[in-house]
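Box 3.1. Reading complex inputs
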Amino acid sequence: NAGVMQNPRHLVRRRGQEARLRCSPMKGHSHVYWYRQLPEEGLKFMVYLQKENIIDESGMPKERFSAEFPKEGPSILRIQQVVRGDSAAYFCASSPSLAGGDTGELFFGEGSRLTVL
Amino acid sequence: GENVEQHPSTLSVQEGDSAVIKCTYSDSASNYFPWYKQELGKGPQLIIDIRSNVGEKKDQRIAVTLNKTAKHFSLHITETQPEDSAVYFCAAPHGSDYKLSFGAGTTVTVRA
């Protein structure tokens, strides 16, 4: 019974390169959320997706960041032309239905740690 | 938007003693308050949550209390053990229950 799977666990990029982070939700979960954690800080919401739909991207930076959750395959968080300030841990979470309902829980993956040189 | 303040930022306790972490929130409409535990190199894991229709909830050695009037909630860990050492985050929803605003975290160290 695999949990939320994220890869890569660690990614190093030089300024200006692209970073792609992947997330496979738990089996049976159709709701995916991406959060970002800067060093010594709590997690900050970025985006909520269902299959083929972006439901809420209010936490996404306006430029260079995009997310998708295709019909087949994992959810992807894409960061173009990375800058040093993008260095952070990016966590994906999933839930079987809308989080905060009777099921309540967001299940988090172990994160992808991006370092921009 | 929701603003969640968490205190203390670090907490060191002797094994067997209790640990208490406190959080305040700003949005009076919030009604769901989860607590997450994050171990080094891992993702956050939900340990307990509370909804605004109750004032206290317990699960073995952990408990959460909620004061909606004062807009604060607390995590209580009793009979602490070394495996309780981790970073603990409180959270409250920002408009929707999936859009959580997290506190800055409390690093708990349990001394053997």
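In summary: The mean pLDDT of chain B is 92.
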